[in-house]
Specification:
Number of strands: 8
Number of domains: 1
CATH architecture: Alpha-Beta Barrel
Helix content: 40-55%
Distance between the termini: 25 Å
Shape: globular
Strand content: 15-25%
C-alpha cells in the first residue's frame, strides 16, 4: 500500500503537469507560477509530507494555526526551506501575530485594514523587530458577490493614491476568488482581475507583478487568464479529491 507521502508526491506531479499545460495554452510556458499549498485544514505531519513531495509555499487563514505550524516545523529542521503566506481574512487584533511570520498577506480587503497593517509594520520597523514593509496583495471582489469580502473594483481605483502612500506595506498585486461551480463566471472574474491590474499599472506606474487567483476547482482557468499564484488545498492534501 502506498504511503500518504507517496500519494501526495504523485498528486503534485499531476498538478504541476496541469499547471504547465495551462500555461502553454495561454502562451506563458516560460513564466514561473507560485503554487501555494493551502495547509489550513491539515496538521504539521501533513505539511512535512508536502515538503517531502516538493512543496515550498504554504497558506494559512488563522494566525494561531500559522504559529502552531511554524513552531512544529521549527523543531524539525531548516526553516529557510519553506515559507508561509496569510490567505484568509485578517482581523486587526491579529496583525502583529502575522507580521514577520509570513512572506505575503493575500487578503488586504479594505483601506482600514491596509492602514492598520501599515501602521503596525511601521512601528515594528522602528523598534527593529521587523526588517521591511509587509508585502501584501489587495483583495478585490471582482464578481460582486455579497458573500465575498474585499474592495469593489471602483474602491480600489479610488483608494490607490492613499494606499500608495502607506510606507508600512508594499503592494505586490491583487487577489480574488471566483464564484464556485460556474467556469464561465470564474473566467470572467479572473480576466476582470487581470484587466484591473493592467489599468492600475498604466494609471499609477505600479508593477503589481502578482495575481493570486485560482483554487482547486478552477486553477487552470485562472492560469489561462494570467494568474501568477494559485492556492490549492484539497487537491494537494486529499489524494482522493478528483482533479477537475
Amino acid at each position: 500500500m502506498e504511503s500518504y507521502s507517496d500519494l501526495i508526491a504523485e498528486r503534485r506531479a499531476e498538478i504541476v503537469e496541469r499547471i504547465d499545460a495551462a500555461l502553454a495554452r495561454a502562451g506563458r510556458a516560460d513564466e514561473q507560477v507560485t503554487l501555494v499549498a493551502v495547509s489550513k485544514t491539515v496538521g504539521v505531519d501533513e505539511v512535512v509530507a508536502a515538503l517531502g513531495a516538493g512543496y515550498r509555499v504554504f497558506g494559512e487563514n488563522r494566525p494561531q494555526e500559522l504559529v502552531r505550524k511554524l513552531e512544529g516545523l521549527a523543531q524539525m529542521g531548516d526553516v529557510s526551506a519553506y515559507r508561509f503566506d496569510m490567505i484568509g481574512n485578517l482581523q486587526t487584533n491579529k496583525i502583529n501575530t502575522v507580521l514577520g511570520r509570513v512572506a505575503l498577506i493575500h487578503s488586504i480587503g479594505s483601506a482600514h485594514l491596509a492602514d492598520a497593517v501599515s501602521s503596525r509594520a511601521e512601528r515594528r520597523i522602528a523598534e527593529g523587530s521587523l526588517a521591511a514593509p509587509a508585502h501584501v496583495l489587495l483583495e478585490v471582489n471582482v464578481s460582486g458577490e455579497a458573500s465575498k469580502s474585499g474592495f469593489a473594483p471602483d474602491e480600489v481605483r479610488a483608494c490607490m493614491p492613499h494606499l500608495m502612500e502607506l510606507s508600512g506595506i508594499h503592494i505586490d498585486g491583487l487577489m480574488t476568488m471566483a464564484p464556485r461551480g460556474d467556469k464561465d463566471a470564474a473566467r470572467r472574474t479572473f480576466s476582470g482581475l487581470r484587466e484591473l491590474r493592467d489599468e492600475l499599472r498604466e494609471r499609477w506606474g505600479l508593477e503589481l507583478p502578482e495575481l493570486s487567483c485560482g483554487m482547486s476547482e478552477d486553477f487552470e482557468i485562472a492560469l489561462e487568464e494570467g494568474s501568477t499564484i494559485v492556492r490549492l488545498g484539497r487537491v494537494v492534501f486529499n489524494p482522493s479529491f478528483a482533479l477537475q
